[in-house]
Specification:
The protein is built from nine helices and six strands. A hairpin with a 5-residue loop joins β1 and β2.
Length: about 290
């Protein structure tokens, strides 16, 4: 199922961050995380939280952090400064008439000034991770709400498709009741065309052959299974838990029965009904892939 959520947050130091979550259809749960440097350790905790909320779908979760523009403070390296100063003064003394070195020229030498590196405070880092996790939970809740909204609409589509399949099944059942009559009429027409008035086939032998062919064309089991599948699918829709995979399995069973119904058909009308059933079942199968 598809969905989108966005949650903005602020750290204690004033820097801001944003979670963006996107969900598309998928047979299983596939969470793809994109985390900034320094927060990779949250990977396992984030996956655990997502796994508690979702069972299917390809979910992309991206975290962006916008830090305040703070230029690092430059501090001199005492050893490098002392070494540079000695070298510059010694060189200046050796060159007659050379101007004495300025402080700016010495500080501009490579390695004399260094950016001050501030070690991370473990307490602050732990607080940042907690803030990120709480915001992720909020983003998951928003994504879940978006998917539930889509699921409500999808449920109506599925119920409409199941109603269509149920109606086609009942029409097929009515048409299938005429199968023995059609088989007999077809056999008699064939025999009359071959033998004409010279036909010498006992009535009981003809009845036995008609019964044999009608048995092969009997679709009552397929009709009963289609009815049972419709009932099972409607029951699934009433359950308050993930049903996507079971609904996909039922859609496969629907397709199998619709195919068999068409293969056994002895009338053009029943063949057309089986084709309509196949179309409705295919739409049901496509929609089932969107269900959690």
């Amino acid at each position: 199922m598809t969905g989108f959520s966005r949650v903005d947050g602020v750290f204690a130091d004033g820097s801001r961050f944003t979670w963006e979550l996107r969900s598309v259809n998928g047979r299983g749960l596939d969470l793809r995380l994109k985390l900034p440097p320094g927060l990779e350790s949250l990977d396992a905790a984030l996956r655990d939280r997502a796994g508690q909320q979702f069972f299917r779908g390809n979910i992309g979760a991206g975290l962006t952090v916008k830090r305040e523009d703070r230029r690092p403070r430059l501090v001199p390296d005492p050893e490098a400064l002392e070494q540079a100063l000695r070298l510059v003064l010694d060189l200046s003394a050796r060159i007659p008439g050379a101007s004495p070195p300025t402080a700016a020229s010495i500080l501009a030498l490579p390695g004399v000034l260094q950016a001050e590196v501030q070690e991370a405070d473990p307490v602050e880092e732990a607080a940042r991770r907690d803030v990120v996790l709480l915001a992720f939970d909020e983003a998951l809740a928003e994504l879940l709400a978006a998917r539930r909204s889509e699921g409500t609409k999808l449920e109506q589509i599925l119920r409409t498709l199941l109603d269509e399949i149920g109606t086609l099944t009942e029409r097929a059942a009515s048409e299938a009741a005429r199968q023995p009559e059609l088989v007999r009429a077809r056999m008699e027409a064939t025999l009359n065309g071959l033998l004409g008035d010279q036909r010498r086939i006992p009535e009981d032998r003809l009845a036995a052959e008609v019964a044999l062919l009608a048995g092969r064309a009997d679709v009552r089991e397929e009709i009963d299974r289609l009815r049972a599948h419709v009932s099972a699918a409607l029951t699934l829709l009433d359950e308050a838990k993930p049903i996507g995979r079971r609904l996909e399995f039922l859609a496969q069973e629907f397709g199998r029965e619709a195919n068999t119904l068409g293969a056994k058909s002895s009338s053009l009308e029943l063949t057309h009904l089986s084709l309509e059933l196949k179309g409705a079942v295919e739409r049901l199968r496509e929609q089932s892939a969107n269900v959690e």
